[in-house]
Design goal:
mainly alpha, two-stranded antiparallel ribbon, 2 strands
């Protein structure tokens, strides 16, 4: 008896690579579009924070649209119940990891504390961009790439592949080094472990935002090769580039690599059964 094969379009939409590409496009497309439109329609002095926040909202809608229309499921990983608690947990984890990193660097003599700047409202302005970055990257790398890969190849492959892609996505950043690639990959593993533990993206978003904000706006240090700005604390990294991270910043430090890898191993061990999820 002849059987009806699924239509070509249905087979394509079911392919993991097609889903990953669609998910990435639908999630991230709002970011450049929003920035281009805002730059064309609004003068620069009036483009403070709101374009990034608008883009973050559109990223959220884009990801939900992808999950519902392409994956044909409910985006439970973005459910709002418990969101505040999970975001707060992620923020504390990210901030704590940054504080521990700089404490170790200070103990090693490569971070020299120089004082405290007067805090003002300007220190909060970068939050808009960092919220956008945290949401977009976590939805793409954990929500799309990890999620699709886990359902196709299983948890272990999803952890490895999503972490590798996350680290490779930072290749264009100035000053990238082998320790930096390792630290980024370890961070990708940590975020995947947190996602597997909670099956939610909020804790990952919180950790991501807190890491970037604390490195740049609290410790006034370089983030992933982007120029350092004046934050709450005055300080500088001096000495061996293997410890300071060099041009790439603290994320290229061997200390950062070891601490993030230890945190990733800890969270992976807290949910060992989740490693077997998927095929």
């Amino acid at each position: 008896m002849a059987t009806n094969k699924p239509a070509l379009a249905s087979r394509l939409m079911a392919h993991p690579l097609v889903r990953i590409v669609l998910g990435m496009v639908l999630t991230f497309a709002a970011v450049p579009l929003t920035m281009i439109v805002a730059s064309k329609l609004v003068e620069k002095p009036y483009r403070v924070a709101w374009p990034q926040l608008l883009a973050a909202v559109l990223v959220w809608f884009g990801y939900r649209f992808y999950v519902r229309r392409v994956e044909k499921r409910q985006p439970t990983e973005l459910a709002t119940q418990g969101m505040g608690r999970e975001l707060a947990t992620g923020l504390l984890l990210g901030a704590g990891l940054v504080a521990l990193t700089f404490a170790v660097l200070a103990a090693l003599g490569v971070y020299r504390f120089g004082g405290v700047n007067s805090p003002g409202l300007a220190i909060l302005l970068p939050l808009a961009e960092l919220v956008l970055v945290g949401m977009a990257e976590e939805m793409m790398f954990r929500g799309v790439i990890f999620g699709v890969t886990e359902r196709s190849l299983g948890g272990k492959a999803a952890v490895a592949i999503s972490a590798l892609v996350f680290s490779l996505a930072h290749l264009p950043n100035e000053g990238l080094s082998v320790p930096a690639v390792g630290a980024l990959a370890a961070y990708g593993v940590l975020q995947a472990a947190l996602y597997m533990k909670t099956r939610r993206l909020w804790i990952c978003i919180g950790t991501h935002v807190a890491w970037n904000y604390c490195v740049s706006q609290v410790f006034s240090s370089t983030v992933s090769g982007h120029a350092a700005t004046d934050g709450l604390l005055r300080g500088e990294l001096v000495g061996n580039a293997m410890l300071t991270g060099g041009v790439f910043g603290v994320e290229g430090s061997l200390v950062t690599l070891l601490l993030i890898a230890a945190a990733a191993a800890f969270w992976l061990r807290r949910g060992p059964n989740l490693m077997n999820r998927g095929r």
